[in-house]
Amino acid sequence: MKSRRRPYAQQRPQDLGGGVWSVPVPIPGNPLGYTLVYAIESPKGPVLVDAGWNHPDAWEALSGGLAALGIDVRAVSGVVVTHFHPDHAGLAGQVREVSGGWIAMHESDAALVTLMHELPESEHASFQTDMLRRAGADPGEAMEAVSRPTPPARPDRELRDGDLVDLPGRKLRAVHTPGHTPGHICLHLEDADRLFTGDHVLPDITPHIGIYPFDRDDVDPLGDFLESLDRVGELGPLDALPAHEWIFQDVAARAAEIRHHHEEKLARLRALLAQRPEPLTIWEVAAMMTWNRPWDELSPMLRGMAAGEAAAHLRTLEARGAVRRSSRVSGVDPVRFQALDS
């Protein structure tokens, strides 16, 4: 039950056995290519794990892929969303419209979806540009880096850690795994030793872990993510059904690999800061780090994402007492970080 990542054109809906199916749903213009949407059999009608990007081609792939497996999308009883990002929650609203089913997500992500719906466009743009300038971006680049995805549909049901999803005859339990988003959940199909991992544990790549706003000091998303990896590891060598790439075995082993990757990244970042006598802005730190492309080749939007990830790593180092942030003269001055003597 392993299907290595292939281009979307080579993907096909699959019967994974045990009343579980997968449908690849394209993500237009994204290098990830597709989201793997899963359907789980239920007497009330199948329950979907995630729904894919809100786009006509994606809807055709989802509804047509389900039909190829003998499932009418109108019979879906519910969609449980692993997290609120558009490649996971985007089509949940359309599924609800045609099926009358429910949408469920963790309460922390549900709160963010509500905020996205209620925050005016002008306030959102000001929030992002101010955040980027406080990170050290110049005003022009801060303006170019602003983006606002369309908010997903509001959920009908909110989940907490340990809750069972409405799936009669099966045991599908929510496991709160914050980090990638505050309300990210994995879903443990306890009667089959399978774990739907969303973006939390992927077989080859690692998810984006950022902090928003970049200069917050009251949360630690990367620290939460590392603890969540340990928690998933405690579930044992379950079969992993991720939202991207391919299905794989032994989620605990992969979770340990990802943790090791981030610990190495934290150590390299600490060493880089120790070599610089002066405090650095988040933007300057991000430019020093290694990404999948050189910093000069990243678009303003991708630089903003890189800065969010740099900020998350700096915040974890700060929480561990390895770096400190400098005080600012005013709220618009960039925050700066400096290594502490070990």
Automatic annotation (TrEMBL):
Its domain of life reads Bacteria
SUPFAM superfamilies per UniProt: Metallo-hydrolase/oxidoreductase
Region span, Disordered: 138-163
Keywords, A to Z, come to: Hydrolase
Q: Which residue intervals are annotated with compositional bias (Basic and acidic residues) in the record?
A: 154-163
Q: Spell out the InterPro entries in the cross-references.
A: Metallo-B-lactamas, RibonucZ/Hydroxyglut_hydro, Sec-metab_biosynth-thioest, WH-like_DNA-bd_sf
Q: Which residues form the Metallo-beta-lactamase domain?
A: 34-244
State whether keyword ATP-binding applies: no
Q: Does the keyword Ligase apply?
A: no
Pfam families per UniProt: Lactamase_B
Q: Which GO terms describe its molecular function?
A: hydrolase activity
- PANTHER family under this entry? ENDORIBONUCLEASE LACTB2, METALLO-BETA-LACTAMASE SUPERFAMILY POTEIN
Protein name per the record:
Glyoxylase-like metal-dependent hydrolase (Beta-lactamase superfamily II)
